[in-house]
Structure formats: C-alpha cells, structure tokens
Amino acid sequence: MFYKINPSITPIELEELTSTELTLGILSFHELYELYPRLGFSEDTYHRCMKESSTLQSSVLMYKDYTYGIFFLQDVENVSMNFKKVAFFLKHKLILIVSFQENLEHLTYFIAKTFEKLSYQGSVEIEQLFTNLFLSFISEDKQKLEVHSMELDDLENVVFEKQTPEILRTILQLRKKMILLE
Question: What DSSP element (H or E) covers 141?
Fold first, then answer.
C-alpha cells in the first residue's frame, strides 16, 4: 500500500510512484520480496532484513542512495517479550515501512491516525514525515513508562511503611515492564 503525501495522504498504486513526490509505503515482508528490485533496493539488503528477524537487535545501515533499518515495537498495554519487528527504508522521497506481521491493518491504522494528528502547512519534507512517524511509535512507550514509574513510587512508599509480599511481587512485575519499555 502506497500513499502520496502532499500534505494530505492519498492512496496511490505502485505504478503511480515517482521520485519527485513524497511517498509512504507500508508493506508486508512478502510484498517486500516481490518489490525490492523494482523499488531500487539490493538483494543483499533484502536478505539482511530477513536474516535479522531472529534477534531483538535494532540496526541502521546507510547505503549510497538509501538508508535501511530494523526496530522493534511493543504493545505498551501488554508489555511482554512479544516484539513486532518493523523495517524501514528511506530513499530520496520514499519512506517504506515493512511489517513482519501477517496483518498490516493495525500498523496502517496507527500510521493513518498519526497523520490525522499532524497538521502540515505547505509542503512536507521527508525528514518531517520520518521524524513524526517514529516519534509517534515511541511516544506511547514514554507515556506508559511514566505511568508505571508513578505506580511503582506509590507501591514502594507502601512497602516502606509495611512489608507485604503481594506488593513486592507487583513491584517486581512493574519493574520488568519498565525495563522492557526502556
């Protein structure tokens, strides 16, 4: 799925992609396999992207005419070791987001909601779009981390007053969630 950004977001077909208009693409890893040569990305980058799926190590690599990276998103409401791998490619006027989940609906909905919140005046540059998109990915983490921190402070104050095993268990669970969000 591709979108032209001018500054509104308009769905476009692959055939309508140009190197002169800012475009956002949201693809599954299956679609990336079919499209990486046509989009101008190397086979080496594609294979690196697929190989790095087994680790939780984020990375960014710069090539001559594009940048590629991997990062991991987490459901801040259900903090666990279930991370969602996402790749990104930046090339001139194209931002390509690749999800390694079968269902792209959640990611597409999230990105569309992000654009609704942003109000651009005049033309939009790729740096603005990329920065705002990734800030929106991590903003919930910071908010949830702050909530957990306040909950933890309250529980620790209770522990100082009276020791209870149940509160200690809750504190340990919150600390684990906070470590995963950091």
Answer: helix 126-161
Beta bridge partner(s), residue 2: 12, 25
- Strands lying side by side in the sheet with 94-99: 9-12, 2-5, 23-28, 94-99, 83-91, 67-74, 59-62
Q: For residue 104, what are its two tokens?
A: 């792209």
First CA to last CA distance, the chain: 31
What residues does 24 pair with on adjacent strands?
A: 3, 95
CA dihedral of 6, 12, 18, 19, whole degrees rounded to 10: 60
Per DSSP, 182 falls in state -
Place of tokens 């033309």: 123
**What does DSSP assign to residue 120?**
-
pLDDT tens column, 77-128:
665 556 677 888 999 889 898 888 767 777 777 776 676 666 555 566 777 7
